[in-house]
Amino acid sequence: MSGSVNSINGQESNRNNTQAGRPAQIVVKSGESLSVIAKRYGMNPKQFMEWTGLKKSSLTAGQKINLPTAQVPKGKGIMTLVRANGMTMEEFGRLNNLPKPYNNYKASAGETFYVFNHNAKTKSNSSTTGTPQTRSRKPVQKRQAPPPSQASGNRAKWGSSYSPEELAANIYQKSCDYWGAVGKPDFDALIKEINPKNVKEVIEAYTKNSKNKSKESLINTITSEVRSDKNKRKSAVMHIYDMLAKRYGTDKAVREGFEEELNDQFDSWGMVSTKKLDETITRMMASPDVIAAKMERDIDHRIAAVGKKSFNELKSLVTHENASEVIKAYDKLNTGESLIEGITSEIGSSKDSRKETVMHIYDALAKEKNIPESQRAVFEEELNKEFDSFGMVNTKELDKMINNMLLKPDGVSKTSPASNTSGSKVDNSPKVKFTANSEIKTAEQWRRGAIAAAKNEALNKYKEFCKQNGIKFNENDLDLTPMERIPAPVSKNGKVVADISPVLKPTTKPNGKVVILNPGHGGYSVKTGNFDPGSYSFIKKGNGKYAPLLEYEKMQDYAEKAAEKLQAEGYTVVIASGHAQTISAQGTVSNLVEDISSGRLTNKKYNKKDIVFVSLHADSEPGKSGSGICYDSSFKDDSKLAQTIQSSLNEDDWIKAGLSERVWGKNGLQVLHQSESNPSVLLEVEYVNGSKSQNLDSSAFQGRFLDKLTVGLNRYFGLD
Q1: Measured between alpha carbons, how far is 632 from 639 in angstroms, rounded to an integer?
Q2: How many angstroms separate the Cα of 414 from the Cα of each of 108, 281, 319, 484, 518?
Q3: Do 715 and 648 contact (CB within 8 A), yes or no?
Q4: Beta partners for 619?
Q5: Per residue in 238-261, pLDDT tens?
């Protein structure tokens, strides 16, 4: 059915043009022709026949013609009908003669609307009464995962079994399959697939989905499911927000404003309006150029912009991930003033608001460039001096300090969906030298060498695996894709260092506790330059090939998922990974504990007893199965932590966890020795080459294991 139709003629005698008076049936009067009736509905005869299902163009007096209509379900709005029938809002509004803007129209109880059902063929109704079904009511089906080879590729790149386009399409389809979708297991499972790696792409793909003709946002779809529990809808929206905030390092002040707006909308009368929520989401995904342009527009066009809610949101979007780019982008706008000067010149804004905004910009840039804390006092002193002087603030000296900071190499590595999530203070040097006698190579050359060595080792191990398991060896049956994902070394001043994530802040109310997660193995040795994949075995995939199950890669995934769960419980989290020799030689763990406890890393001091260290590994011994908790029994807190976690893990009948005493000086572990000043354990999640190695590759096992680990930590701290 063509969408280019005119609005229905308001004088049409067969139609009572009131909000509830769009009749589902008309009766042909004597002398009325098809073309006359069709014209009244803004259509030509062919379009009208297609719409109503008429089979013959000749009409007879008294003939009844059914018009496709539908009522908005209780508590819903017109968007429900638009989406269910595959229409555009323009098409729907014109067909029903609604006032513009169409999407602001509030449907009344029992109001009936005309619809074009683009999602299904309309049955012939030239002689029967009733209305066509306007929303497909399919039985709930379990979601089908893509083929393993495809899923594996998606998981590596996007952290999901689906590509962003597939995930967006599946979510949209589920919202059309049945009402009240939010809260249903299959719909919620799709929402949980949204993570920091893919969230931006999923949001964008959702509005670009060819079936989403109204270009409804993902947030709008979720909130409009009024048959779903209100709290579940709000939770789904906040999950999407939190994943986006985690990706871009967005300030918690933005979250507070976003959640306040969400609550206000749910508490107000009528349908939830997501206009402001969608604006915030769009701003969060904006490039530094866009953020700079919006800030300049507010400064130029709004009186006393600084301190207002919209500008504060823009300010909060300037983080240690993008501060330098935003400042440079503002300069490129050729306004004749710097960003700092533009902010201070807003004399209609309070002095405190302007100073606080300038210091926010400074702090974001200082974190990005790893500027010593002592320099902050110098900058702030100059700022206060200028504000206390007579006349306009002169930012010449302030801008000079900012420009000097911009010249420094980044102190915090950037994060992106396809990159390492490291927050290690690395330099921009492309050369890495591991030992006094080793060859100097670029980071990429070291990576390619590590990949080649890993592939050769995997081939030899696969031969042994085939022999041990009675499998006919065929080199073509080995999938070496996991080896291609080996990362480049993280370096500082040309030397390899451990990979330290940014401080991952709680996504709920902070509980005052910190967890340092250490995914075992991975990284390059500071002594030899060799990459350590840890233990591994082989898992047969759906395509019939065997792929290496790498300890380092699987434990990195466990650590990232654990971080998300812990953040949601109020924990501050830091992930520290790398080669055991590098971590040992550089005292990575002990230094990290000191940086956190002193507040150098977290801007808040912590008692060392409130910082726990958890190292995640996969044990190795063919034929065995089960989990293990290694701890140093000479430390009371370590013993208590190990026993509490063991008790929690064993509450799940899928997990069988035992205890293993590892005392330093006897059979101790270096990584636990480094964290003697705070509670610490090493967890062997499962046997990578054991009888139940598939557990490590199971998302269900992973989820249950990490749930129980989180419960154990809560109990240890008395938070349950």
Answers
A1: 7
A2: 51, 20, 11, 22, 20
A3: yes
A4: 687
A5: 999 999 988 887 777 788 888 988
